[in-house]
Amino acid sequence: MFLLIVLVALQRRAVNQNAYLGIAMCACGMFYAIVTAPLFPKAFWWWTLPILSSLPAVFWLWARAAFDDDFVLRRWHGALWLAIVAWGFAVSLVWPHWPALAKGGGKVLAAVALLLALSAAVQTVKTWRVDLVMRRRRLRLAVLAINVVTIALVAVAGFADIPVLAPGASGSLPTALSLFVMATLAALGVLSSPVVAVSDATAAIASGDAGRPARVAAERVVVDPILLRRLDHLMTVERTYRQEGLAIGALAARLDVPEHRLRQAINEGLGYRNFNAFLNHYRIEDAKVALSDVAQREVPVLTIAMDAGFQSIGPFNRAFKAETGMTPTEFRREALSRLETDRPLEISPPRREIG
């Protein structure tokens, strides 16, 4: 199953980081299934340990990319993976000569595995409330549970007095079932159809055509245009996005609709996958207007960010640069400079000479 997932993903020529990490996780799962098989030669275990020890890092990166739309792979992520692989090689090399030292190194790898699994669990739960993709909301907890259990099997084997070179519960039915379910869920995550980012709902709101149903081209799900127009009124006229700590439940209460209907409207009607991204769109537009205002030239950037609804300067700077490609200060400098350049020259009347 893991191999089929990798082949189909490669056939589709996926070029995004989510697909790459999904393929890497499937490849790791396939490798784990092979080397922990009962008939796999024990003589080759010494070179399999470094790769097996890096599986938690691959899963951690995959979970971050799958459930966090703002996640971006960095060089230090690759450095962390290489460091774990190098540590695994060191443990496997010293095992024949210093078994006690190798066991200590194996426990370090087990601690790293549990730490990465815990980090993935925290990240998945942390972003669950703001996730607007219903299919992903249903999958994330199942994917998280089965992968954390699988990693825990390897980690517990490292903490216990089980030899380091016998990773996991080799050949056990729970491990086999865990791998099977993980492959199934990975296929749903890696091979599922992408969500269309923009739908006809935006055009329906802009034109005021409340009678025309808004549909997402890929899903063909009807979204209530009246609800979209009420939502647009709250955002653009009442500026509800400025409310501190605004949650989707509170916004649903303002609109007097069930929370799941609002999630569907924002995701399938407006194309947003994350509630924070939806709010930040309006907040950044608000901030751009204030930063371009000559009358607010001396107003601190932090004040403008707080007035727009951000709670601190860090998230504002990151969201603003992701949206515009420049920092708020750079945007203000460029906007005000452009206004100064475009302002017409004031021609003073000619002076009359007395004589």
Kindly describe this structure.
- It is a single chain.
- By secondary structure, the protein is mainly α.
- It contains 16 helices and 2 strands.
- Strand 1 (214-215) and strand 2 form a beta hairpin.
- Helix 1 runs parallel beside helix 8 (173-191) and helix 2 packs antiparallel against helix 8.
- The radius of gyration is 27 Å and the shape is elongated.
- The protein starts with a helix and ends in a 13-residue tail after the last helix.
- 32% of the residues are buried.
In short:
With 355 residues, the protein is an all-alpha fold. Helices cover 66% and strands 1% of the residues.
In angstroms, what separates the terminal alpha carbons? 101 Å
- What global shape is seen? elongated
| Spans where pLDDT lies below 50 across 5 or more residues | 162-169, 193-220, 345-350
Number of helical segments with 4 or more residues: 16
Quaternary state reads: single chain
Alpha-carbon Rg, integer: 27 Å
Into which percentage range does the β-strand content fall?
under 5%
Instruction: Profile the largest sheet.
Output: 2 strands, antiparallel
The amount of helix comes to 55-70%
Strand/helix succession? HHHHHHHHHEEHHHHHHH
Whole-number mean pLDDT: 75
- Give the structural class: mainly alpha
Strand order of the largest sheet: 1-2
Number of strands: 2
Topology readout:
Blueprint: H1 2-11, H2 17-35, H3 45-53, H4 55-67, H5 75-94, H6 99-126, H7 134-159, H8 173-191, H9 201-207, E1 214-215, E2 222-223, H10 225-236, H11 248-255, H12 259-270, H13 275-291, H14 301-308, H15 313-324, H16 328-342
Antiparallel strand pairs: 1-2
